[in-house]
Amino acid sequence: MNVLLDHLPEFRDGFLGTLAITAASALLALVLGLLIAGFRVSPIPPLRAFGTAWVTVLRNTPLTLLFLVAFFVVPQILFPGTSPFVLATLALGFYTSSFVCEAVRSGISTVPIGQAEAARSLGMTFSQTLRMIVLPQATRTVLPPLSSIFIALTKNSAIAGAFSVTELFNVSKLLSDKGFAIGWIFLWIALAYLVITFAISGLFRVLERRMGVAR
Question: Where is the ABC transmembrane type-1 domain (predicted)?
Answer without folding.
Answer: 15-204
